[in-house]
Design a protein that fits this description.
heterodimer, A: mainly alpha, MetI-like fold, 78% helix, globular, B: 323 residues, alpha/beta, Rossmann fold, binds adenosine-5'-diphosphate, binds magnesium ion
Amino acid sequence: MNTTTTSLYRRRKRLNQLVMAACLVATGIGFLFLFAILFTLVSKGVGSISLSIFTERTRMTGGGLGNAIWGTLVMTCVATVIGTIVGVAAGTWLAEYGGKRKMAKVIRFINDVLLSAPSIIVGLFIYAVVVVPMGNFSAWAGVLSLTVIIVPVVIRSTEDMMQLIPNSLREAAAALGAHRWWIIVRVCYSGARAGIMTGILLGFARISGETAPLLFTSLNSNQWNFFQLNNEMANLPMTIYQNMTINSFIPDLVSLAWAGALILTAAILILNIAARYFSRQRS
Amino acid sequence: MTHPDSAARDTAAADGQTEQRSRSRESRPANGEVQPAVDHGASEPQSAGGRPERQGQSGGKPVSFNNEVDHERLSMTVTDLDLWYGDYQALKSLDIEIYSNTVTALIGPSGCGKSTFLRCLNRMNDLIPSARIEGRIEMDGRNVNAREMDVVALRRRVGMVFQNPNPFPKTIFENVAYAPRMHDIVSSRRDQEELVEQALRDAGLWDEVKDKLDQPGTSLSGGQQQRLCIARAIALRPDVILMDEPTSALDPISTAIIEDLMVRLRKDFTIVVVTHNMQQAARVADYTAFFHLGEIIEYNDTATLFETPATTKAEDYITGRYG
Ligand SMILES: Nc1ncnc2c1ncn2[C@@H]1O[C@H](COP(=O)(O)OP(=O)(O)O)[C@@H](O)[C@H]1O
Ligand SMILES: [Mg+2]
Protein backbone atom coordinates (compact mmCIF):
# COMPACT_ATOMS: atom_id res chain seq x y z
CA MET A 1 0.00 0.00 0.00
CA ASN A 2 2.84 2.28 0.82
CA THR A 3 4.40 1.84 -2.57
CA THR A 4 1.18 2.59 -4.42
CA THR A 5 0.70 5.83 -2.52
CA THR A 6 4.28 6.85 -3.22
CA SER A 7 3.92 6.07 -6.89
CA LEU A 8 0.62 7.96 -6.99
CA TYR A 9 2.31 10.83 -5.25
CA ARG A 10 5.19 10.74 -7.71
CA ARG A 11 2.83 10.69 -10.65
CA ARG A 12 0.98 13.70 -9.32
CA LYS A 13 4.19 15.52 -8.70
CA ARG A 14 5.41 14.86 -12.24
CA LEU A 15 2.09 15.99 -13.70
CA ASN A 16 2.30 19.11 -11.61
CA GLN A 17 5.77 19.87 -12.90
CA LEU A 18 4.63 19.28 -16.47
CA VAL A 19 1.71 21.66 -16.17
CA MET A 20 3.89 24.26 -14.48
CA ALA A 21 6.36 24.06 -17.33
CA ALA A 22 3.57 24.44 -19.90
CA CYS A 23 2.28 27.51 -18.08
CA LEU A 24 5.74 29.02 -18.03
CA VAL A 25 6.15 28.47 -21.76
CA ALA A 26 2.77 30.03 -22.47
CA THR A 27 3.59 33.04 -20.31
CA GLY A 28 6.95 33.31 -22.06
CA ILE A 29 5.30 33.38 -25.48
CA GLY A 30 2.91 36.07 -24.33
CA PHE A 31 5.74 38.19 -23.01
CA LEU A 32 7.75 37.57 -26.15
CA PHE A 33 5.02 39.07 -28.31
CA LEU A 34 4.47 42.00 -26.00
CA PHE A 35 8.16 42.82 -25.97
CA ALA A 36 8.50 42.26 -29.70
CA ILE A 37 5.70 44.75 -30.31
CA LEU A 38 7.14 47.26 -27.86
CA PHE A 39 10.63 46.79 -29.30
CA THR A 40 9.44 47.35 -32.88
CA LEU A 41 7.46 50.41 -31.87
CA VAL A 42 10.25 51.93 -29.86
CA SER A 43 12.97 51.26 -32.43
CA LYS A 44 10.90 52.66 -35.29
CA GLY A 45 9.07 55.40 -33.51
CA VAL A 46 11.26 56.85 -30.81
CA GLY A 47 13.50 58.59 -33.36
CA SER A 48 10.79 60.93 -34.51
CA ILE A 49 9.36 61.75 -31.10
CA SER A 50 9.96 65.34 -30.19
CA LEU A 51 8.08 68.19 -28.66
CA SER A 52 6.87 69.39 -32.04
CA ILE A 53 5.04 66.14 -32.62
CA PHE A 54 2.64 67.16 -29.84
CA THR A 55 2.35 70.80 -30.83
CA GLU A 56 2.15 70.71 -34.63
CA ARG A 57 -0.63 69.52 -36.84
CA THR A 58 -0.21 66.91 -39.54
CA ARG A 59 0.79 68.33 -42.94
CA MET A 60 1.03 66.91 -46.41
CA THR A 61 4.69 66.26 -45.73
CA GLY A 62 5.49 65.66 -42.11
CA GLY A 63 4.45 68.08 -39.41
CA GLY A 64 3.27 66.64 -36.08
CA LEU A 65 0.44 64.69 -34.53
CA GLY A 66 -0.91 67.40 -32.25
CA ASN A 67 -4.32 67.64 -33.90
CA ALA A 68 -4.72 63.85 -34.01
CA ILE A 69 -3.75 63.39 -30.36
CA TRP A 70 -6.08 66.19 -29.35
CA GLY A 71 -8.92 64.79 -31.45
CA THR A 72 -8.52 61.31 -29.99
CA LEU A 73 -8.43 62.75 -26.49
CA VAL A 74 -11.56 64.84 -26.99
CA MET A 75 -13.63 62.12 -28.61
CA THR A 76 -12.47 59.43 -26.19
CA CYS A 77 -13.13 61.62 -23.17
CA VAL A 78 -16.58 62.74 -24.29
CA ALA A 79 -17.52 59.17 -25.18
CA THR A 80 -16.22 57.96 -21.81
CA VAL A 81 -18.20 60.56 -19.90
CA ILE A 82 -21.43 59.72 -21.74
CA GLY A 83 -20.65 56.01 -21.56
CA THR A 84 -19.99 56.21 -17.82
CA ILE A 85 -23.27 57.96 -17.08
CA VAL A 86 -25.32 55.59 -19.22
CA GLY A 87 -23.34 52.48 -18.33
CA VAL A 88 -23.24 52.98 -14.57
CA ALA A 89 -26.96 53.80 -14.50
CA ALA A 90 -27.84 50.75 -16.56
CA GLY A 91 -25.47 48.48 -14.66
CA THR A 92 -26.93 49.69 -11.38
CA TRP A 93 -30.44 48.99 -12.57
CA LEU A 94 -29.46 45.50 -13.68
CA ALA A 95 -27.76 44.68 -10.39
CA GLU A 96 -30.16 46.34 -7.94
CA TYR A 97 -33.55 46.27 -9.60
CA GLY A 98 -33.37 43.97 -12.61
CA GLY A 99 -32.68 40.71 -10.86
CA LYS A 100 -34.36 37.82 -12.63
CA ARG A 101 -36.90 39.91 -14.49
CA LYS A 102 -37.42 39.14 -18.14
CA MET A 103 -36.51 42.70 -19.07
CA ALA A 104 -33.18 42.40 -17.26
CA LYS A 105 -32.39 39.12 -18.97
CA VAL A 106 -33.07 40.65 -22.38
CA ILE A 107 -30.89 43.65 -21.60
CA ARG A 108 -28.08 41.42 -20.38
CA PHE A 109 -28.25 39.38 -23.56
CA ILE A 110 -28.21 42.44 -25.81
CA ASN A 111 -25.34 43.83 -23.79
CA ASP A 112 -23.33 40.68 -24.29
CA VAL A 113 -23.97 40.86 -28.01
CA LEU A 114 -22.87 44.50 -28.10
CA LEU A 115 -19.81 43.64 -26.07
CA SER A 116 -18.58 41.36 -28.80
CA ALA A 117 -19.97 43.23 -31.79
CA PRO A 118 -17.33 43.99 -34.42
CA SER A 119 -16.50 47.67 -34.13
CA ILE A 120 -16.75 48.25 -37.85
CA ILE A 121 -20.42 47.27 -37.67
CA VAL A 122 -20.91 49.90 -34.97
CA GLY A 123 -19.24 52.47 -37.22
CA LEU A 124 -21.39 51.45 -40.15
CA PHE A 125 -24.53 51.73 -38.03
CA ILE A 126 -23.70 55.25 -36.86
CA TYR A 127 -22.82 56.15 -40.43
CA ALA A 128 -26.26 55.05 -41.56
CA VAL A 129 -28.28 56.66 -38.78
CA VAL A 130 -26.25 59.81 -38.09
CA VAL A 131 -23.74 60.68 -40.79
CA VAL A 132 -25.95 60.10 -43.82
CA PRO A 133 -28.98 62.02 -42.50
CA MET A 134 -26.77 64.87 -41.29
CA GLY A 135 -24.92 64.98 -44.56
CA ASN A 136 -21.38 65.22 -43.18
CA PHE A 137 -18.83 63.41 -41.10
CA SER A 138 -18.54 64.79 -37.60
CA ALA A 139 -16.81 64.29 -34.31
CA TRP A 140 -20.22 63.77 -32.71
CA ALA A 141 -20.77 60.76 -34.90
CA GLY A 142 -17.35 59.49 -33.85
CA VAL A 143 -18.20 60.08 -30.21
CA LEU A 144 -21.47 58.22 -30.63
CA SER A 145 -19.88 55.15 -32.12
CA LEU A 146 -17.20 55.12 -29.43
CA THR A 147 -19.97 55.46 -26.85
CA VAL A 148 -21.75 52.45 -28.28
CA ILE A 149 -18.54 50.51 -27.77
CA ILE A 150 -17.76 51.65 -24.24
CA VAL A 151 -21.28 51.47 -22.78
CA PRO A 152 -21.50 47.66 -22.70
CA VAL A 153 -18.07 47.48 -21.07
CA VAL A 154 -19.17 49.85 -18.30
CA ILE A 155 -22.56 48.17 -17.88
CA ARG A 156 -20.92 44.83 -17.46
CA SER A 157 -18.28 45.88 -15.00
CA THR A 158 -20.75 47.95 -13.00
CA GLU A 159 -23.20 45.09 -12.70
CA ASP A 160 -20.49 42.59 -11.82
CA MET A 161 -18.95 44.84 -9.21
CA MET A 162 -22.30 45.72 -7.64
CA GLN A 163 -23.12 42.05 -7.39
CA LEU A 164 -19.93 41.45 -5.50
CA ILE A 165 -21.28 43.62 -2.68
CA PRO A 166 -22.64 41.12 -0.17
CA ASN A 167 -26.38 41.24 0.36
CA SER A 168 -25.78 41.22 4.08
CA LEU A 169 -24.44 44.77 3.84
CA ARG A 170 -27.53 45.93 1.97
CA GLU A 171 -29.67 44.29 4.63
CA ALA A 172 -27.61 45.83 7.41
CA ALA A 173 -28.14 49.28 5.97
CA ALA A 174 -31.81 48.67 5.26
CA ALA A 175 -32.36 47.46 8.80
CA LEU A 176 -30.89 50.72 10.05
CA GLY A 177 -33.53 52.60 8.09
CA ALA A 178 -31.54 53.45 4.97
CA HIS A 179 -33.43 54.39 1.84
CA ARG A 180 -32.86 52.41 -1.31
CA TRP A 181 -30.89 55.20 -2.99
CA TRP A 182 -28.75 55.58 0.10
CA ILE A 183 -27.91 51.90 0.03
CA ILE A 184 -26.97 52.10 -3.63
CA VAL A 185 -24.88 55.23 -3.33
CA ARG A 186 -23.34 54.87 0.10
CA VAL A 187 -23.04 51.13 0.47
CA CYS A 188 -22.80 49.66 -3.03
CA TYR A 189 -20.94 52.39 -4.88
CA SER A 190 -18.54 52.95 -2.06
CA GLY A 191 -17.66 49.27 -2.14
CA ALA A 192 -17.70 48.85 -5.90
CA ARG A 193 -16.04 52.14 -6.79
CA ALA A 194 -12.60 50.70 -7.48
CA GLY A 195 -13.99 47.95 -9.69
CA ILE A 196 -16.21 50.31 -11.64
CA MET A 197 -13.31 52.72 -12.11
CA THR A 198 -11.22 49.87 -13.42
CA GLY A 199 -13.91 48.99 -15.95
CA ILE A 200 -14.17 52.60 -17.10
CA LEU A 201 -10.41 52.90 -17.49
CA LEU A 202 -10.20 49.69 -19.49
CA GLY A 203 -13.07 50.88 -21.67
CA PHE A 204 -11.29 54.20 -22.15
CA ALA A 205 -8.15 52.37 -23.21
CA ARG A 206 -10.13 50.21 -25.58
CA ILE A 207 -11.88 53.03 -27.42
CA SER A 208 -8.83 55.26 -27.57
CA GLY A 209 -7.32 52.82 -30.03
CA GLU A 210 -10.43 52.06 -32.09
CA THR A 211 -10.09 52.82 -35.77
CA ALA A 212 -12.98 51.16 -37.53
CA PRO A 213 -15.81 53.07 -35.80
CA LEU A 214 -14.15 56.37 -36.74
CA LEU A 215 -13.65 55.43 -40.37
CA PHE A 216 -17.23 56.27 -41.29
CA THR A 217 -17.96 58.81 -38.60
CA SER A 218 -15.40 61.41 -37.58
CA LEU A 219 -13.16 60.58 -40.49
CA ASN A 220 -9.84 62.37 -40.19
CA SER A 221 -8.39 65.72 -41.04
CA ASN A 222 -5.15 67.62 -41.23
CA GLN A 223 -6.54 70.62 -39.45
CA TRP A 224 -6.72 71.60 -35.84
CA ASN A 225 -10.24 71.14 -34.54
CA PHE A 226 -10.51 71.97 -30.89
CA PHE A 227 -14.18 71.89 -29.98
CA GLN A 228 -16.07 71.84 -33.27
CA LEU A 229 -17.74 68.53 -32.70
CA ASN A 230 -19.99 69.11 -35.72
CA ASN A 231 -17.04 68.86 -38.07
CA GLU A 232 -14.57 66.18 -38.94
CA MET A 233 -11.94 65.60 -36.30
CA ALA A 234 -8.46 64.21 -36.57
CA ASN A 235 -7.54 61.18 -34.47
CA LEU A 236 -4.53 58.99 -33.90
CA PRO A 237 -5.68 55.59 -35.11
CA MET A 238 -6.94 56.97 -38.43
CA THR A 239 -3.80 59.02 -38.89
CA ILE A 240 -1.64 55.96 -38.33
CA TYR A 241 -3.77 54.00 -40.75
CA GLN A 242 -3.70 56.63 -43.49
CA ASN A 243 -0.02 57.42 -43.15
CA MET A 244 0.89 53.76 -43.38
CA THR A 245 -1.35 52.98 -46.35
CA ILE A 246 -2.30 55.69 -48.81
CA ASN A 247 0.56 57.95 -47.77
CA SER A 248 3.18 55.26 -47.37
CA PHE A 249 5.29 56.75 -50.15
CA ILE A 250 6.10 59.78 -47.97
CA PRO A 251 8.82 58.71 -45.49
CA ASP A 252 8.09 61.57 -43.09
CA LEU A 253 4.49 60.50 -42.71
CA VAL A 254 5.45 56.88 -42.19
CA SER A 255 7.79 57.76 -39.35
CA LEU A 256 5.03 59.96 -37.90
CA ALA A 257 2.76 56.93 -37.97
CA TRP A 258 5.32 54.89 -36.04
CA ALA A 259 5.63 57.66 -33.49
CA GLY A 260 1.84 57.80 -33.21
CA ALA A 261 1.67 54.05 -32.72
CA LEU A 262 4.26 54.28 -29.96
CA ILE A 263 2.41 57.09 -28.22
CA LEU A 264 -0.91 55.27 -28.43
CA THR A 265 0.55 52.02 -27.15
CA ALA A 266 2.33 53.74 -24.29
CA ALA A 267 -0.86 55.53 -23.30
CA ILE A 268 -2.88 52.31 -23.36
CA LEU A 269 -0.20 50.51 -21.38
CA ILE A 270 -0.25 53.23 -18.76
CA LEU A 271 -4.05 53.12 -18.62
CA ASN A 272 -3.96 49.36 -18.09
CA ILE A 273 -1.41 49.70 -15.34
CA ALA A 274 -3.56 52.38 -13.73
CA ALA A 275 -6.57 50.08 -13.97
CA ARG A 276 -4.57 47.33 -12.29
CA TYR A 277 -3.56 49.71 -9.57
CA PHE A 278 -7.18 50.69 -8.97
CA SER A 279 -8.39 47.12 -8.76
CA ARG A 280 -5.56 46.29 -6.37
CA GLN A 281 -6.66 49.02 -4.04
CA ARG A 282 -9.98 47.35 -3.58
CA SER A 283 -8.56 44.32 -1.89
CA MET B 1 -29.58 23.84 42.35
CA THR B 2 -28.11 27.00 41.02
CA HIS B 3 -26.05 27.36 37.95
CA PRO B 4 -23.90 30.43 38.00
CA ASP B 5 -23.24 30.69 34.36
CA SER B 6 -20.53 28.91 32.56
CA ALA B 7 -20.34 25.74 34.57
CA ALA B 8 -24.05 25.29 34.36
CA ARG B 9 -23.96 26.21 30.74
CA ASP B 10 -21.78 23.27 30.03
CA THR B 11 -23.76 20.74 31.99
CA ALA B 12 -26.92 22.10 30.54
CA ALA B 13 -25.60 21.71 27.08
CA ALA B 14 -24.69 18.17 27.95
CA ASP B 15 -27.77 16.86 29.59
CA GLY B 16 -30.66 18.72 28.20
CA GLN B 17 -32.74 21.30 29.88
CA THR B 18 -33.13 20.01 33.41
CA GLU B 19 -30.68 22.52 34.78
CA GLN B 20 -32.47 25.32 33.05
CA ARG B 21 -35.86 24.52 34.35
CA SER B 22 -35.13 26.19 37.59
CA ARG B 23 -34.74 29.55 35.90
CA SER B 24 -36.55 31.84 38.22
CA ARG B 25 -38.52 34.85 37.28
CA GLU B 26 -38.31 36.38 40.71
CA SER B 27 -35.92 39.02 39.63
CA ARG B 28 -38.66 40.64 37.66
CA PRO B 29 -41.05 41.91 40.26
CA ALA B 30 -44.64 42.37 39.43
CA ASN B 31 -44.43 46.11 39.27
CA GLY B 32 -42.70 45.78 35.97
CA GLU B 33 -39.41 47.08 37.16
CA VAL B 34 -36.58 45.11 35.77
CA GLN B 35 -33.45 44.37 37.65
CA PRO B 36 -30.23 43.29 36.10
CA ALA B 37 -30.86 39.66 35.54
CA VAL B 38 -28.29 37.82 37.48
CA ASP B 39 -31.04 35.68 38.78
CA HIS B 40 -30.28 32.10 38.35
CA GLY B 41 -32.19 31.26 41.46
CA ALA B 42 -33.38 27.88 42.42
CA SER B 43 -36.96 28.50 43.21
CA GLU B 44 -39.84 27.05 41.33
CA PRO B 45 -41.18 29.12 38.50
CA GLN B 46 -44.17 31.04 39.58
CA SER B 47 -47.04 31.84 37.38
CA ALA B 48 -48.75 33.87 40.00
CA GLY B 49 -48.56 37.60 40.34
CA GLY B 50 -50.40 38.52 37.22
CA ARG B 51 -48.03 36.68 35.00
CA PRO B 52 -49.81 35.55 31.89
CA GLU B 53 -51.19 32.11 32.22
CA ARG B 54 -50.67 29.55 29.57
CA GLN B 55 -53.66 28.99 27.41
CA GLY B 56 -52.50 26.31 25.11
CA GLN B 57 -54.40 23.25 24.28
CA SER B 58 -52.57 20.45 22.65
CA GLY B 59 -54.56 20.85 19.51
CA GLY B 60 -51.84 22.66 17.62
CA LYS B 61 -53.91 25.81 17.46
CA PRO B 62 -52.12 29.13 17.64
CA VAL B 63 -51.90 30.30 21.15
CA SER B 64 -51.63 33.78 22.48
CA PHE B 65 -51.75 35.53 25.77
CA ASN B 66 -55.11 36.93 26.43
CA ASN B 67 -54.70 37.32 30.13
CA GLU B 68 -54.55 40.61 31.83
CA VAL B 69 -51.10 42.04 31.51
CA ASP B 70 -51.62 45.05 33.70
CA HIS B 71 -48.05 45.29 34.84
CA GLU B 72 -46.57 44.77 31.41
CA ARG B 73 -46.46 47.29 28.67
CA LEU B 74 -47.17 45.87 25.25
CA SER B 75 -44.55 46.59 22.66
CA MET B 76 -45.98 44.86 19.63
CA THR B 77 -49.22 43.03 19.11
CA VAL B 78 -49.49 40.66 16.20
CA THR B 79 -52.90 39.52 15.09
CA ASP B 80 -53.74 37.02 12.40
CA LEU B 81 -50.51 37.39 10.50
CA ASP B 82 -50.15 35.39 7.29
CA LEU B 83 -47.21 35.40 4.94
CA TRP B 84 -46.79 33.76 1.57
CA TYR B 85 -43.65 33.33 -0.48
CA GLY B 86 -45.31 33.01 -3.84
CA ASP B 87 -47.77 30.17 -3.32
CA TYR B 88 -46.05 28.80 -0.25
CA GLN B 89 -47.57 29.91 3.01
CA ALA B 90 -44.71 30.35 5.44
CA LEU B 91 -46.64 31.95 8.31
CA LYS B 92 -50.14 30.88 9.24
CA SER B 93 -52.38 33.14 11.20
CA LEU B 94 -49.93 34.12 13.91
CA ASP B 95 -51.07 35.85 17.07
CA ILE B 96 -48.53 36.98 19.61
CA GLU B 97 -47.99 39.83 21.98
CA ILE B 98 -44.51 41.10 22.70
CA TYR B 99 -43.92 42.86 25.96
CA SER B 100 -41.75 45.86 26.50
CA ASN B 101 -38.42 45.40 28.20
CA THR B 102 -38.46 41.67 27.98
CA VAL B 103 -36.50 39.15 26.04
CA THR B 104 -38.76 37.02 23.90
CA ALA B 105 -37.27 33.92 22.32
CA LEU B 106 -38.58 32.25 19.18
CA ILE B 107 -37.70 28.59 19.02
CA GLY B 108 -38.65 25.77 16.73
CA PRO B 109 -37.25 23.44 14.10
CA SER B 110 -35.41 24.78 11.10
CA GLY B 111 -37.58 26.23 8.38
CA CYS B 112 -40.61 26.78 10.59
CA GLY B 113 -40.74 30.49 9.89
CA LYS B 114 -38.91 32.07 12.82
CA SER B 115 -36.73 34.30 10.68
CA THR B 116 -39.61 35.08 8.40
CA PHE B 117 -41.71 36.20 11.34
CA LEU B 118 -38.88 38.22 12.83
CA ARG B 119 -38.38 40.01 9.54
CA CYS B 120 -42.05 40.95 9.49
CA LEU B 121 -41.55 43.02 12.60
CA ASN B 122 -39.32 45.54 10.82
CA ARG B 123 -40.71 44.94 7.36
CA MET B 124 -37.48 43.44 6.05
CA ASN B 125 -39.57 41.08 3.96
CA ASP B 126 -40.39 44.10 1.80
CA LEU B 127 -37.04 43.39 0.17
CA ILE B 128 -38.29 40.00 -1.02
CA PRO B 129 -40.48 40.51 -4.06
CA SER B 130 -42.33 37.21 -3.73
CA ALA B 131 -43.37 37.82 -0.13
CA ARG B 132 -46.98 38.80 0.51
CA ILE B 133 -48.09 39.66 4.02
CA GLU B 134 -51.52 39.97 5.55
CA GLY B 135 -52.53 40.73 9.09
CA ARG B 136 -51.89 43.30 11.71
CA ILE B 137 -48.77 44.15 13.67
CA GLU B 138 -49.57 46.89 16.07
CA MET B 139 -47.00 49.11 17.67
CA ASP B 140 -48.13 52.17 19.60
CA GLY B 141 -51.54 51.91 18.08
CA ARG B 142 -50.28 51.91 14.51
CA ASN B 143 -50.20 49.04 12.09
CA VAL B 144 -46.62 48.32 11.16
CA ASN B 145 -47.87 46.24 8.30
CA ALA B 146 -49.93 49.02 6.73
CA ARG B 147 -48.96 50.15 3.30
CA GLU B 148 -48.67 53.77 4.41
CA MET B 149 -46.33 52.91 7.27
CA ASP B 150 -43.06 54.82 6.98
CA VAL B 151 -40.63 51.93 6.80
CA VAL B 152 -37.62 54.12 7.48
CA ALA B 153 -39.16 55.44 10.68
CA LEU B 154 -40.19 51.92 11.64
CA ARG B 155 -36.69 50.54 11.20
CA ARG B 156 -35.30 53.34 13.31
CA ARG B 157 -37.48 52.08 16.12
CA VAL B 158 -37.03 48.39 15.42
CA GLY B 159 -33.39 47.50 14.97
CA MET B 160 -31.99 44.20 13.80
CA VAL B 161 -28.96 42.02 14.40
CA PHE B 162 -28.25 39.25 11.92
CA GLN B 163 -27.00 35.72 12.20
CA ASN B 164 -23.65 36.45 10.65
CA PRO B 165 -21.98 39.60 11.93
CA ASN B 166 -22.11 42.09 9.08
CA PRO B 167 -20.23 45.26 10.00
CA PHE B 168 -19.72 47.72 7.19
CA PRO B 169 -16.23 47.73 5.70
CA LYS B 170 -15.52 50.94 7.58
CA THR B 171 -13.86 51.84 10.83
CA ILE B 172 -15.33 50.79 14.15
CA PHE B 173 -16.27 54.40 14.81
CA GLU B 174 -17.93 54.81 11.43
CA ASN B 175 -19.89 51.61 11.90
CA VAL B 176 -21.56 52.96 15.01
CA ALA B 177 -21.89 56.57 13.87
CA TYR B 178 -23.26 55.48 10.50
CA ALA B 179 -26.96 55.28 11.16
CA PRO B 180 -27.26 58.25 13.53
CA ARG B 181 -25.50 60.38 10.97
CA MET B 182 -27.65 59.04 8.17
CA HIS B 183 -30.74 60.06 10.12
CA ASP B 184 -29.25 63.43 11.05
CA ILE B 185 -29.46 62.62 14.73
CA VAL B 186 -25.95 63.86 15.33
CA SER B 187 -23.71 66.10 13.34
CA SER B 188 -20.92 67.60 15.40
CA ARG B 189 -17.92 65.43 15.92
CA ARG B 190 -18.26 65.73 19.68
CA ASP B 191 -21.84 64.48 19.68
CA GLN B 192 -20.84 61.63 17.45
CA GLU B 193 -18.01 60.64 19.74
CA GLU B 194 -20.30 60.73 22.74
CA LEU B 195 -22.92 58.65 21.05
CA VAL B 196 -20.42 56.12 19.73
CA GLU B 197 -18.89 55.69 23.17
CA GLN B 198 -22.29 55.25 24.78
CA ALA B 199 -23.41 52.67 22.24
CA LEU B 200 -20.15 50.75 22.50
CA ARG B 201 -20.36 50.81 26.28
CA ASP B 202 -23.93 49.52 26.17
CA ALA B 203 -22.81 46.76 23.86
CA GLY B 204 -20.00 45.87 26.26
CA LEU B 205 -17.36 46.52 23.64
CA TRP B 206 -15.94 49.86 24.66
CA ASP B 207 -13.03 48.64 26.74
CA GLU B 208 -11.87 46.34 23.99
CA VAL B 209 -11.97 48.87 21.17
CA LYS B 210 -11.56 52.30 22.71
CA ASP B 211 -7.96 52.54 21.54
CA LYS B 212 -8.61 51.40 18.00
CA LEU B 213 -11.78 53.12 16.91
CA ASP B 214 -10.20 53.98 13.59
CA GLN B 215 -9.48 50.39 12.69
CA PRO B 216 -11.77 48.52 10.35
CA GLY B 217 -14.75 46.87 12.01
CA THR B 218 -13.99 43.73 10.05
CA SER B 219 -10.66 43.37 11.84
CA LEU B 220 -12.42 42.39 15.07
CA SER B 221 -13.12 38.84 16.13
CA GLY B 222 -16.49 37.32 15.26
CA GLY B 223 -17.94 37.89 18.70
CA GLN B 224 -16.67 41.45 18.80
CA GLN B 225 -18.08 42.07 15.35
CA GLN B 226 -21.46 40.88 16.53
CA ARG B 227 -21.31 43.21 19.51
CA LEU B 228 -20.29 45.98 17.11
CA CYS B 229 -23.44 45.21 15.14
CA ILE B 230 -25.44 45.40 18.35
CA ALA B 231 -23.79 48.74 19.13
CA ARG B 232 -24.62 49.91 15.64
CA ALA B 233 -28.25 49.00 16.20
CA ILE B 234 -28.57 50.54 19.65
CA ALA B 235 -26.86 53.74 18.54
CA LEU B 236 -30.26 54.64 17.09
CA ARG B 237 -31.91 54.05 20.46
CA PRO B 238 -34.59 51.78 19.03
CA ASP B 239 -37.47 50.44 21.09
CA VAL B 240 -37.12 46.92 19.86
CA ILE B 241 -34.08 44.93 18.80
CA LEU B 242 -34.62 41.85 16.66
CA MET B 243 -31.89 39.24 16.71
CA ASP B 244 -31.84 36.33 14.31
CA GLU B 245 -29.69 33.58 15.79
CA PRO B 246 -27.14 36.17 16.87
CA THR B 247 -24.78 33.65 18.39
CA SER B 248 -25.03 30.68 16.08
CA ALA B 249 -21.88 31.71 14.24
CA LEU B 250 -19.93 32.40 17.42
CA ASP B 251 -17.75 30.48 19.83
CA PRO B 252 -19.07 29.59 23.32
CA ILE B 253 -17.31 32.44 25.10
CA SER B 254 -18.59 35.08 22.71
CA THR B 255 -21.99 33.46 22.96
CA ALA B 256 -21.97 33.76 26.73
CA ILE B 257 -20.98 37.43 26.50
CA ILE B 258 -23.78 38.20 24.09
CA GLU B 259 -26.30 36.31 26.19
CA ASP B 260 -25.37 38.39 29.21
CA LEU B 261 -25.64 41.44 27.02
CA MET B 262 -29.17 40.55 25.96
CA VAL B 263 -30.24 40.15 29.53
CA ARG B 264 -28.69 43.48 30.42
CA LEU B 265 -30.10 45.31 27.43
CA ARG B 266 -33.70 44.51 28.17
CA LYS B 267 -33.57 47.28 30.76
CA ASP B 268 -33.65 49.72 27.85
CA PHE B 269 -34.89 47.70 24.94
CA THR B 270 -37.37 45.04 24.00
CA ILE B 271 -35.56 42.09 22.54
CA VAL B 272 -36.91 39.40 20.26
CA VAL B 273 -34.39 36.69 19.59
CA VAL B 274 -34.53 33.66 17.34
CA THR B 275 -32.47 30.82 18.65
CA HIS B 276 -31.76 27.25 17.79
CA ASN B 277 -30.35 26.70 21.17
CA MET B 278 -32.90 25.82 23.81
CA GLN B 279 -30.50 26.38 26.65
CA GLN B 280 -30.00 29.86 25.33
CA ALA B 281 -33.72 30.52 25.29
CA ALA B 282 -33.95 29.21 28.82
CA ARG B 283 -31.08 31.38 29.97
CA VAL B 284 -32.00 34.70 28.43
CA ALA B 285 -35.68 34.76 27.58
CA ASP B 286 -38.57 35.92 29.70
CA TYR B 287 -41.04 34.56 27.18
CA THR B 288 -40.67 31.89 24.58
CA ALA B 289 -42.73 31.10 21.52
CA PHE B 290 -42.56 27.69 19.94
CA PHE B 291 -42.95 27.72 16.16
CA HIS B 292 -43.82 24.73 14.06
CA LEU B 293 -44.56 24.69 10.33
CA GLY B 294 -45.38 28.36 10.21
CA GLU B 295 -47.59 28.39 13.28
CA ILE B 296 -47.04 29.42 16.85
CA ILE B 297 -47.93 26.26 18.69
CA GLU B 298 -47.24 27.55 22.13
CA TYR B 299 -46.30 30.82 23.72
CA ASN B 300 -45.67 31.31 27.37
CA ASP B 301 -43.25 32.54 29.91
CA THR B 302 -40.08 30.63 29.43
CA ALA B 303 -40.07 28.66 32.66
CA THR B 304 -43.59 27.37 32.16
CA LEU B 305 -43.01 26.53 28.54
CA PHE B 306 -39.89 24.58 29.31
CA GLU B 307 -41.16 22.84 32.42
CA THR B 308 -44.70 22.05 31.54
CA PRO B 309 -45.25 22.43 27.86
CA ALA B 310 -48.91 22.17 27.00
CA THR B 311 -48.51 20.56 23.65
CA THR B 312 -46.80 17.34 22.78
CA LYS B 313 -45.07 18.97 19.83
CA ALA B 314 -43.44 21.53 22.06
CA GLU B 315 -42.58 18.90 24.60
CA ASP B 316 -41.02 16.67 21.98
CA TYR B 317 -39.02 19.53 20.60
CA ILE B 318 -37.88 20.76 23.98
CA THR B 319 -36.86 17.35 25.18
CA GLY B 320 -34.95 16.84 21.97
CA ARG B 321 -37.06 14.01 20.69
CA TYR B 322 -37.53 15.83 17.46
CA GLY B 323 -36.30 18.93 15.72
N1 LIG C 1 -36.97 34.35 0.37
C1 LIG C 1 -37.69 33.22 0.44
N2 LIG C 1 -38.37 32.78 -0.65
C2 LIG C 1 -39.10 31.64 -0.59
N3 LIG C 1 -39.20 30.87 0.49
C3 LIG C 1 -38.55 31.23 1.61
C4 LIG C 1 -37.76 32.43 1.64
N4 LIG C 1 -37.23 32.56 2.87
C5 LIG C 1 -37.66 31.49 3.57
N5 LIG C 1 -38.46 30.70 2.82
C6 LIG C 1 -39.14 29.48 3.27
O1 LIG C 1 -39.99 29.83 4.34
C7 LIG C 1 -39.90 28.87 5.37
C8 LIG C 1 -39.49 29.52 6.65
O2 LIG C 1 -38.17 29.95 6.56
P1 LIG C 1 -37.41 30.70 7.73
O3 LIG C 1 -38.27 31.78 8.24
O4 LIG C 1 -36.08 31.10 7.25
O5 LIG C 1 -37.28 29.55 8.82
P2 LIG C 1 -36.43 29.50 10.16
O6 LIG C 1 -35.79 30.82 10.37
O7 LIG C 1 -37.41 29.15 11.21
O8 LIG C 1 -35.43 28.42 9.99
C9 LIG C 1 -38.93 27.81 4.89
O9 LIG C 1 -39.66 26.74 4.38
C10 LIG C 1 -38.16 28.48 3.81
O10 LIG C 1 -37.78 27.57 2.83
MG1 LIG D 1 -33.72 31.34 10.37
